[in-house]
Amino acid sequence: MDDGRWQEIQACVREADFVLVGLGEEMAYDWGALTEDARYREIEAETGDAQEYIWIVPFLQKMILRQEREDKWTRAYRNLKRLIAGKDYFIVSLCMDDRIYDAGFEAERIVTPCGGFRMMQCDGNCSHELTDMPQESYEAVLRYYRKEIPLSALREPVCGKCGRKLRFNRLGVERYAEEGYLDRWHAYTKWLQRTVNRKVCVLELGVGMEYPTVIRFPFEKIVLYNQKARLYRVHSALWQIGGEISDRGCSVREDPADFLEQMSAAL
Fold first, then answer.
1. CB–CB of 157/166 below 8 Å?
2. Quick one: CATH architecture of 3-29+71-113+181-265?
3. Are strands 18-23 and 229-235 parallel, antiparallel or unpaired?
4. One-character DSSP codes across 14-40
5. Which residue among 62, 99, 203, 248 has the highest number of C-beta atoms inside a 10 angstrom radius?
6. What percent of the chain is helix, strand and coil (3-state, nearest 5)?
7. Eight-class DSSP state of 164
8. What pTM value is reported for the model?
């Protein structure tokens, strides 16, 4: 990306009263890192198609996310934080890897409607309540990964109220508990009310058509009705902006993490 475009984005952020950020599926962590891990491949071979051990995978994912690392997502979030530092911002993220929470942003300014690894829930959502991850389950999977205990020693955590399986509060469980994000969603909608007729810089990064009614369509509507808003849409395939707001929008055909990673020299 040319320096002139970066300067345009920086100027929009600098002059804006509010900054709204949307993170889509293209910003999600590439779980292919698991298959590059030799021990994980051993675990795949050992568990095979056994359904009773599928629950181990998200614990392994959480384990990898907890590791210290320097990759393009680390650098991308670091640059995003630098870009919007000091601004009145809100971030809506569809990513279920929780990396946004480890990047130094204010947690009260983030909503993740698809959930993540921070809390767990009953697979049947029997009580409409969330619970902390059982540390003993995590430690057991970690010890198994280190070859300190056998696979047969692992026990899947269960709901203390109904006995059903305990899952991470993420889309994909049998009855997803929306209670995990609703309070932050209400905070987000209240924040949006303050942006009416104010200068808003809207940054949409990697948002496709998987859940368009959460970010993509609402963001377009914000720009359509607020003449002081401007949209920057970054996506490798779905970068286009409709004609109704094309005069107040800028599209970039690029992977969003790579796009943010390039920002270092401009900031």
1. yes
2. 3-Layer(aba) Sandwich (3.40)
3. unpaired
4. HH-SEEEEEE-GGGS--THHHHT-HHH
5. 203
6. 45, 20, 35
7. P
8. 0.93
